[in-house]
Amino acid sequence: MKAFALTALLIxxxxxxxxxxxxxxxxxxxxxxxxxSFTGKVATNDPADTAFVGKPLVMQVKSCTADEIxxxxxxxxxxxxxxxxxxxTTGLRLKHDHRHADGTEDAVSQYGGDTTxxxxxxxQEFPVDQFSKDLFVRENRAVSVTNVWAxxxxxxxxxxxxxxxxGRHFRVEFDLPGGS
Length: 180
Known about the structure:
By secondary structure, the protein is of the alpha+beta class. It has helices spanning 2-14, 22-31, 130-138, and strands at 37-42, 57-60, 63-64, 68-75, 78-87, 92-98, 111-114, 123-127, 148-154, 158-165, 168-175.
């Protein structure tokens, strides 16, 4: 009996650990960037992108815990945007935290969505949630009720943030080797 228990223990220890979910792998890739900042560029040419074109774009993976990563995104001198990625019981959530210069929350803030598919270790998509749809309608931004945001992390290559909806595609890319 003791030999059987010892054999079972050795087999269990030798077995490969259960693979992490794609969301776990993505979160780990993003967490590995914590404390670093990166410059980026707009990778799309939609006329609505003009507010971003020609301005310095900087993201900083500023604070990371086991369940939340906060990524301030500066467009020139405008530091009002922070992307917040959190773990949920079913995957990941992306929220957009918008603040005024005095730190007060903007009327259009905390919008985003949760993953509804497993995605991959390098790409996660976040379809708009009901809270955000209600916010967009209330704030006269109903065009955004079909938004799908995505983030990509290819270690040593690129981090990308993307917004898609019918008639709109925005993507900004950051080269990862230049992190500081």
